[in-house]
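Course assignment 3, question 2. Fill in each field.
Student: A.L.
Task: Predict the tertiary structure for the chain below.
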Amino acid sequence: MPEWLHGTLYIGVLAGRNLPKHKNLSIRHAVPTTFDSCLGGMEKIACASRPSKAYCTVNVGPTRRARTDVLGHSSNPEWEEQFEILVADEAEELSFTVKDDNWIGAPHLGRIVVPIEGVVSGQRTEGWFDLVGPTVTHKNGKPIKAQGSIYLTIQYKSISQDPLWNSGVLGSSRGKEDDVPDGAVPHVYFPMRKGCRVTMYNDAHQEAGHNSKVRLPNGVHWEPESCWDNIYDAISDARVLCYVVGWSIYDKIKLKRDPNMTMEDAPFLTLGDLLVKKAREGVRVCMLVWDDKSSLNSNIMGGSGMMATHDEDTRKFFANTGVHCKICKRNGSNDDSFLQRFTTGNMFTHHQKSVILDAGGLQGGPQVDQQHLGKMSPRGPGRKRAQQWTKNKLEELRRRSPGPDKNSPAHHAKPGPNANMGDQMQKRRLVCFIGGLDMCDGRYDTPRHSLFHTLATVHTEDFHQACITGADIKKGGPRQPWHDIHCKLEGPVAWDVYHNFIQRWKGQAREYRQKQLLDLEKPKHNGRLYVPDIARGVKTEDIEDPRSQVGDPQKFEETWNVQIFRSIDSSSAAGLPHTQAALKMGLSAQKGKIVDFSIQARAGCLVLLAAECHYLHAQVLV
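Answer field:
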């Protein structure tokens, strides 16, 4: 009889014993008998048995909830894996199925069924369980015993026994370490970071004069900023790096526009031209863009592909420009079947959208003329002129700026290896933009969501309509409105977004990884971070320590606690820890892959903590 499970299942799949061997199919009977004598030796190989590449799946009722790693050929595998499964299910049984990983298919080696009545009591069950046949039973109703057994631990904890249940987010730190902020989701890859700053964006642009101010509880009116304007300005100000990730990135889009001009007449660079300009100034620009396999450069498919992401246009535009643009598909695991790898690579994508770059400037005084400096070539004869110009400009700033107080400790401090620049240059810090907005056509919109009146101005070269067949800008529209949210992150959490990009670049742009990434995390002798030579004549530059906060949480009212969540696996992100270390970080080992399920963990944790309401906003919920 079904029982209602609401809480956490603690499952351990530790080891297998005497698992059956796998027998390859014989090819002898598929060939003419005249060749029979020549195949004697080959048949022995074809029919030889081998230890299975076993893995185990865990089902709650009919739904698979966990899966172990695939180990090498062994009749006695040692998985040593633990799972914490949040459940809100009505089920009759728990089932454990042992399978043999093959290139095509996964034959069942045996199955274990545990009635739910023995689980809901909360008693811990541990020991060796004999495998039974996958589906067949004797006529008397008893299951046919299969070869082998597996060692399991099973325990259920009801939600009513959890001290955090119904406590609300502000009470969620009870029983945890003192330095864990309220609302933090435990046991995930990225911890919650203190001392951060968050700028929220509603749609890609905010119209000047539009009454969109929000009254805060303290009586202050908060006025939202324009997302794409801020991204444009941040890229323009970048001096060290600019890393971009997107589902779709279109080089011909203008992030910044003038509402009184047509898009092409507005005095702003397109996204493609802006990134190329920064690359020629010496900024390291790297891009990861999804590879839509249907966007073939052919007359049959029309070139644009089913999703019209412009990935081929983007790749061709940035070729040989200094911008390192990698068009990458979603990778499948080597342990996946051929069909699984084909489906993953052609139908699925990571929907990450982020821009990671450095920000900062001079501490007071006149700014370095970046526009003039940008005209200098990063290589060739112009490079030395750029370096000399920068050196002269910094010398001029030092002469014009007042020196430190003779009584201050700074006056008597010994200069470090980078003291000349450190006195006048503010430390560069990492800033990132993440959210739901792709930098492509059809995304530029405001909270007004006008369908017609912007067609002659900011949307002249950016008409997008995927809902109404036959709609066209020449026919007067209407354009398709687009609403989404985005944010800018500053402080320690920006380094988590940077770390995610590094993992993905090394995992999906393998041919680039040694020569195109800047090593910001190589420590110098003074504990600061090192940045390789840059074309502006600055050989080293101070970057804020990843632990540096944007302000004192006790004094700075706008300091945020921020935690990053994602859905990704080791097929697309290099450097994820292996099985034992992964378990401690909330990661899961599944069929040869390490999987980060932190988005799912966050949803489950917040539902657990909710005391009065839960609001979930998602494009896709499976």
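Instructor remarks: The chain is about 20% helix and 25% strand. The mean pLDDT is 76.
Grade: pending
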